[in-house]
Every structure is written in structure tokens, then in C-alpha cells.
Amino acid sequence: MDNRGPAVRGLTATLGPCLPLAYSAFWSAVGMRPDPWLDWVAIGAGVALSIAGLLLAQRPALGRVLATAALAGFFAAVAPTLLYRPGAAFLTCVFGAMVVRSIWGAAPFRPSRQRSPESLVLLRNASYPIVGAWFVAGPMNLQLGTLGQVSAFVALGLGAWLAIRALQRQVVQAPWRKVTAWSAVGLSIISAGLQTGDPSASATLLAIPPWSVLLLAESESDGDGWVAGIFNHPARLLVVTFLGIVAVGGLALYLPAASTIPGRAHLIDAFFTAVSAACVTGLTVLDTERDFTLFGQGVILLLIQVGGLGIMTFATGALALLNRRASLKQESAMAGLLGAQGAMAMFTATKQIIAITFATEAAGALILAAAFMTEGDSIGQALWRGLFTSVSAFCNAGFAIQSDNLISYQGNPLVLHTVAFLIIVGGLGPIPVIAIPALFRAKPISLHARLALITTALLLVLPTVLIAAFEWSHSLGHLSFADRIHNAWFQSVTPRTAGFNSIDFTALQPATVVLTILLMYVGGSPGSTAGGVKTTTLAVLVLSVISVVLGRNEPVVGGRRIGVTSVYRAMAIATMGALSAFVAVTALMLTQQMDPLDLIFEVFSALGTVGLTVGATPLLDDVGKIVIMACMFAGRVGPLTLFLLLQDRPAEEKWNYPTEETPVG
């Protein structure tokens, strides 16, 4: 059978109980009590959609009409709330259109041969509403009332039933996987029943059965499941691995032992912190020093280190230690990401990354510990603060275990310049750093290293002058002449993905804010711990503009031509970064009541994995936090994923088309 038949049935049948749940969530979010008759409209819509999912197998026309009517009833029930939430209204309409398109655009529901069992296809596509039900009933922590809670548990219970049905249909074949799946299903259902006093925990436990069975079933499929599709595709593997790191880190920070907050941290706040740490951003909704225990700070530090080096670098280093090789395609992609000149230099570049990282972090930790001791810290406190700050600075994370970041050290040049040095080295990457001695000895270096070093130098010197000019009598006005220079230099270093601040960013002049946004957009260099569109991207674009002005067909620098492929990739990365910022800013403006410039600053800070804020982060609601979390994640894995996709899909032109010029500009 065409898999779209059971796919739509699984989607609609499980989405049915989610309609009254979403209805309760909408009314709870706006803090209003609906008319009682609307409850029955929402219940009727949910029941109708579930019935439609069952009818789609035998009576597809009737099932489609009933499903569409059910969705219309749901929109009528939540319409009053959407008037208060334009962003939610837009997303809800998009979601409804996607569901209607899935229902009416599916293939005919007729039996035929299929590769995946129907029960697995049902479970696979029912998992999406199940995740939504868990998210609303768990992390969002809304006061759903009786209708919402019952709907959530019906949806999650339906998912558990589909998981049991899939196991009975032998979708998992291997004995150890079968035992694992049945154990996960049984233990999670029993544990959910014991959590009667904590509906959020019960919802989370009930979400485990479908996902555990689905994961085990897909891992068995011989190249047909999404597990094989992930592990055979570097870009997907990168995204999924970072998602796994964030999930583990978020759950660890959600533990009571990780937080000093009574009970535990809010789940959204725990995951926000985990995303910010793993994506080496530094935006915080909780105070790292005050709200997290030593264990919690250790989890954050580990997430920063893993996220800074990058999971692909760790994986490649492990392969090198085991004397194993990756595929030629993976080697080529990794060589490009690391800035190596060829695939054969990949392992060497990885070893250099690891060696430079740990050596630089260790040296920075010792220097900073000595500096913190001069500020009055005890030996143990100074060593921990020095290690945390050094790792955070080198990984360009911006986390600090001081509530005011580095403002209290704005008069300590040793701290400022040590942190600045760590940021610069981490933001350059190993290839340009290793090329610096050769540059002083007048030896040839790679074009990548040359562009990265020159662009970085310009982006350090020019912003220092501009920041000093803009802020001399404002945010720097209370400092001595020397300290003004030190802090102007420091604030020219940190916007390109580091996120530390030694001055109050809420007091900056608008011109400085705009300059900082531009620096955050550019970011660091390829193969480094930094985010942004990268310095070499900026260099290639500027050189391309210069070549057009001079009438050249290709940009030239240092006696070498930059290939048209590099120009196209630079344009793609810069354009995707700008479009991502536009979408995120629009989403925040629709959902958050704040100054537009503050929201623009917040988005570029998240997408550039910078971590600076002008005060908007603590004011975000749960929707705003989710948008910023998505920006941080996209800013970390997006450029790498885009590069891998470009590397993985070489153009194969079968025809030579005639050339025709078109007016531009």
C-alpha cells in the first residue's frame, strides 16, 4: 500500500484527542474562561477527527469531509483566543492548512505491496501529534483544566496503544530489541500510573512507549528507516547528534540536584540553558551563579566544551585514534568544515583542534585563576571560576559564573585581555592559528588562513575605534582613559559570537547596537568554535563586489583566483542567514511586546551564537524562548548543515543552456 494512506490515518486518528487539548491550551494561554458550549464544540471536533481517521481506510471521501469539518469546528472554538495572539493565529492557520493538504493530497487508500508494515507507518506518523500533546501537557506547564488533561492523556494513551499494537505485529524482530521495547513500554506505563500527583511527569512517561518502539523498529530497517537515513547522511547526523546533546543536557539541568531553585528549574528554562550551552551562545534566562549548583554548572561546562569543539570533530578524532577512516564523502566534507586543504589532512586538522583547544584552555584557566585570586577569590573558587571562564571564552560561549558577567572586572586588564585572547584564538580556528608563525616568517599560507586573519584583524581594529568613539562619554564615561581603551577593545572582540560583556549593554547608544548586530552577523572563522556566517564568507563577498567594480570575472586576492563555487556558497550562506533572521524577527514581533530593535538584536545574537542581550532575554515568554532556542540551534548547526548539503549535492548539468544577461540592481 502507498504509505501515505496509513500515514494520514495515523495522523488524523491521533490528532483527534489533541484538538480539545489545543483548545484548552489556547484559552489557558490567554487567561480567559470560554463559554461552556465551546467545550462541546472542541470535544465534537476531536471525536469527529478521530472517527475520520478510522473512516479513511474504507470510506476515504467521507473521512476527508469529516476531517475537514472537524478542523473547521476546532478553528471556530479557538477563534476568540487567536484575536489576542496574532503569532499563534498565523502558526495555527499554517498547521491547519498542512493537515488539510495531507488529508486531501494523500494517495488513494487501497491495498498494495508496501515496504514498511502498516502498523509501523501508523505509529511513525502518529508520533507527531503525540509529541505535541506531551509538549503542551509537560514543558509548557499550562493550567489546562479537566478537559485539557483528559485530552492529553487520551492522545498519549492512544500512542502507547499503537506502540503495543506495533509490537504485537512484530515490527521489532531482534530478540534483545523486542525485550527492550516491551520493557520500556511496560515500565513507562506503570510509572505513569504511579505519578498521579504530577501530571507533567505522567505525560512525559506516557510519551516514551511510541518513541522507544519507533526508534528500535527503525534501527532494524535495512536502509529503509530514518535511522539508517540519519547515520548515512552527515548533515542529518550532525543535527540529530546536537539534538541528542541538548536533550541529555536539558534533562540533566532539569534535575533537582542541578538547580538551587526550590523544587527544580522550569523545564523550558532548563532546556533553554542546555541549548544555549551546547550551541555555545550564552543567552540565559537563569543566573548561572545563583540558580545552578556546582553540579549544574558542571553540566553547563561540559555542554559548552562538547558544543564548542563540535561533535563531528570528536567523532573524527575518535576515528583517528582507532586508526579507522570515514567515507570519502565524509572526509571531503569534514576537510572543508575544518579548513583543511584536502581530505587527507582531515585527521591532522582534528588532532590540531583538540591539542590547541585543551592547551589554550589550560593556559587561560591558570592565568584567569591568578587574576581572580587578586580580586579576593579563594584558591578553589578562583580555579573553578578560571576554568569555567577559560572554556567558555575559548568556545565563544559567553557563559560566566558571575551574575554581572565581566562588568565587575572592567578595571582589570589582565582578565579582559586574557578572555579576549581566548575568544580570538577560539574564533579563528586551528588552521589560521597555526599559520600565524609562517606569516611572520614570510612563508606562504593557505588562502583560507590569509582571508581569516586579515578579515579578523580588520573586524577587531575598526570596531574598537568606532565603539570608543560612540561610547566614550556614555557607557565608558565613568572609566579612566586606559580602561576606556581596554573595554572598547574587549567589546570589539566579544560581539563576534563570544557573548561576554564588560559594560552594561542596556546603556549602549543605538549606533553601537547596530554595529554590534553587524559583528554578530559575521561571526568567526570556519572550523572554529564561533558562529555567524563566518569571516571568509564576508571576505569572499567583499572581494566579489570589488571584482565587479574593477570589471573582473572572478575575485582575485594574493595572486590567486577565488572559484565561482566559493562565491555561490558564500552568497547562499549569507542569504540564508539573513532570511533566517527575518523569519525569527517576524515571529518575535508577532508574539512579544518589546522594542523592535531589542528583538532584532536578540535574534542576531541567537543566530550568531553570541549571547549578548540588551535586556530582552529575561522578558521573553515561553513562545519567545522557543523561538530563540530555535535560532540558537539553527545558528550552531545551520551553517555546517548547509555546507554539508552543498558538498553532498554536486550539480550535474545534462544540458548546456544558452546564456542570457538580465538587469540587476
Coarse morphology: globular
Order of helices and strands: HHHHHHHHHHHHHHHHHHHHHHHHEEHHH
Mean pLDDT: 78
Q: What Rg, in angstroms, do the CA atoms define?
A: 27 Å
Q: How many separate domains?
A: 2
Distance between the termini: 52 Å
- DSSP strand count: 2
Strand content: under 5%
Poorly predicted runs of 5 or more residues: 107-114, 317-324
Distinct helical segment count: 27
Strand order of the largest sheet: 1-2
Instruction: Indicate the percent of residues in helices.
Output: 55-70%
Major β-sheet, in short?
Answer: 2 strands, antiparallel
Structural class: mainly alpha
Folded structure, characterized:
- With 665 residues, the protein is mostly helical.
- The chain folds into two domains: 4-223, no CATH class; 308-648, no CATH class.
- Helix content is 69%, strand content 1%.
- It has 27 helices and two strands.
- Strands 1-2 form a two-stranded antiparallel sheet.
- Strand 1 (556-557) and strand 2 form a beta hairpin.
- The longest helix has 29 residues, at 346-374.
- The radius of gyration is 27 Å and the shape is globular.
- It starts with a helix and ends in a 17-residue tail after the last helix.
- Mean pLDDT is 78; it is low at 107-114 and 317-324.
Characteristics:
665 residues; mainly alpha; 2 domains; two-stranded antiparallel ribbon; 2 strands; 1% strand; globular
Topology (elements, then pairings):
Blueprint: H1 4-29, H2 36-55, H3 60-82, H4 86-105, H5 118-137, H6 145-168, H7 175-194, H8 199-206, H9 208-220, H10 226-231, H11 234-254, H12 267-278, H13 288-291, H14 294-309, H15 311-321, H16 328-338, H17 346-374, H18 379-394, H19 413-428, H20 430-440, H21 447-471, H22 481-493, H23 510-522, H24 535-550, E1 556-557, E2 560-561, H25 564-591, H26 596-607, H27 622-648
Helix pairs in contact: 1-2, 1-3, 1-5, 1-6, 2-3, 3-4, 5-6, 5-9, 6-7, 6-9, 7-8, 7-9, 11-12, 11-14, 11-27, 12-14, 12-27, 14-18, 15-17, 16-27, 17-18, 17-19, 18-19, 19-22, 20-21, 21-22, 21-23, 21-24, 23-26, 24-25, 25-26, 25-27, 26-27
